[in-house]
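Milestone M4 deliverable, item 7.
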Amino acid sequence: MRSDALAETVVTRFAPSPTGFLHIGGARTALFNWLFARSLGGKMLLRIEDTDRARSTEPAIAAILDGLKWLGLDWDGDAVFQFARAARHRQAVDEMLASGRAYPCYATPQELEEMRSTAQAEGRPPRYDGRWRDRPEADRPTDRQPAIRLRAPNEGETVVDDLVQGRVVIPNKDLDDLVLLRSDGTPTYMLAVVVDDHDMGVTHVIRGVDHLTNAARQTQIYEALGWAVPKMGHIPLIHGPDGAKLSKRHGALGVEAYREMGYLPAALRNYLARLGWSHGDDEIFSTEQAIEWFDVADVGRSAARFDEAKLQNLNGHYMRATPDAELMTALRAALPHLPGGPQAQARLDAAGLWPAFESALPGLKERAKTLVELLDGARFLLDERPLSLEPAAEQLLTPDARALLAKLHGRLAALPDWTADGAEQEVRALAEEAGVKLGALAQPLRAALTGRKTSPGIFDVLVALGREESLARIEDQAAAA
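Output delivered:
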C-alpha cells in the first residue's frame, strides 16, 4: 500500500466535531493521520466539523486546537470550518439534482415515523421506502419545502477496499436514499464530509471503525458526483483493560486531563501509537522512529486496550530518559496546568528556588512517573518552616534521634564546603561515634529536612536546600527534643 501512496502527494485529515474536548480516541486518530502523512512526506489537514450549531462551542474548538498543539501534532495550512462551507455543499447537491442523481423528497415527519414503526414491527431495519424517488413533478406539494435525497443504486453492491478492515461489501438494497439536504436547506454530515474531503484534496481517510458503514454511503455520494473515492482505513476502537467499551473509569478523558495528570506529550504519543499499531516487538520508540515505521496497513483489526498503568510506567521511563534541562522546560510549561502548579510556580519564583529544584531533579525524576509526582516529590523544597511532619516521619524523630540531630547540626555547620560528599562523611562519622547504624541517623535527618519518610538521596537533599535552610530545619527538630 505504501508504494501506491508514494505515487501521489498524500493528504490526510483530522476532522473532529467541537461538541466536547479532544478525547483520547480522537487523539489517536489524529496521531495515525499525522504519522501516515509525515511518513510519506504528505500533509495532514485539520477540519472542524461544526455543523451541529446547538452543540458546537468555542471552548471546545479551543480545547481541540490546544490539545493537538500540546501533543505536538501540527497540521498543514489553516483549519477549515465546515459550517462556513454550507453554500458549497448546496452547490454539490444542485449538481446531483441536475444529473438526476438526487431528488426532492416531501415525506412528512409523520410518514417517516410510520416507515420506522412498520419496519420495526416487521423486524426490518428502518429505511426510507423511496416513495418520492420517481414521483412526477406534478405531485409535489406546495405547502412545504422538500429534503433532497441521494438517488442511490437499488441493485448491486458497494465495495470499500479498506486499508485496515480489508474488502468490505455492502448490498445496495441495505442502503437507502440518504438525505443530502434537510428541508431547511442545511447540509447533512454525510454530504458535507464528502464535499470537504474532495475540495481539500484528501487522498486517505483514516478514522474509527464506527464510520465503516458511513464509508459505503459516502462512496455512493462520490460516485454520484463523478469524483474519485479516497482510500480509506478504518481503525479499531479503544477498549478498557477489561475489554469493555472505553469509558471515563478506564481513562476516556480529554487530552487536557492527561496534561493535568502530568504526562509528557512524547510519552503519550508513544503510548497511543501502540494502541492498535505495532512495529515488531518495539514498545518504546521516538517520534522520529514512529514516523519512519508507520504504515496504516500494519494497524490491526481488533480493538485496542487502554491501560493507564502501562501509560504511567511508560511515562516514568520517558521522565528518567529525558535530559534534566529538557525536563525542567517541560515542567515549567506544565506548571500552570498541574494541581497546585500555579502556587508552586509562585513559590519557586518568589524564593528563587529554581536552582535548588534543578539540583534535586536527578533524584526526583528517578522516583516519579508523572510531573505531578515529580512536583510532589519536590514538596520539601517548597514547604516553609516549620515543616508539617507526616506521621511516619514524626515517629522517626525520637528523643534519641533529636539528640543526635543536635550534635549533627554543629558538625555540619562547621563544614568549610557545603557538598554532598562532605555532609555524608560527617553523618557517617557521627553514626559511628554514637554506635548506631547509618539509618538511625540518616532517617531522622530525612524526616527533619523533608517532613517525610521517603525522599531523594538525603545528601542530595542537603545540597538542594542549601546550608542555611538545611541547618535551620535540623535545628527546628533538634530543639523540639
